[in-house]
């Protein structure tokens, strides 16, 4: 693991990536002082993923984590997508909450444009999905993708998701719990 700072909530290893579940202190620094977070973690973080929309989502996640059980933080946080070859925090992936009883959870993600078209995001989605299915409450994972974002739909297709419905501007995808 790079760096010697505060430990991650959870770590997931895939062939080319490590997914690091960020602590609340990591999330705060990601928005307020990304350079300080880089120093603490021991690797660079791609800035193109820290859009105003993502920064807003981080604030929303932090608010939810204030009242969540610590054991459920990994369901609310962002996970840093760390590329082993380049030692770069290339993107973020996460769920939008915990499975409430047996239910599906929504996944969201983003990656630095310089790291697109290398199947990193598909690998990250597969890794995080495998982690989610270790929890018996998770019956499936879904995602809502804008029709104007075909690359995101391709990621989900390659990860085994299937199209559930299409509405106005969005395509809804689902990955059921493996049998």
TrEMBL record:
SUPFAM superfamilies: Acyl-CoA N-acyltransferases (Nat) (SSF55729). The keyword Transferase applies. Pfam families: Acetyltransf_3. It comes from the Bacteria. GO terms for molecular function: acyltransferase activity, transferring groups other than amino-acyl groups. Residues 22-161 form the N-acetyltransferase domain. Keywords: Transferase. The keyword Transferase applies. This is Acetyltransferase. The lineage of its organism: Bacteria, Bacillati, Chloroflexota, Anaerolineae, Anaerolineales.
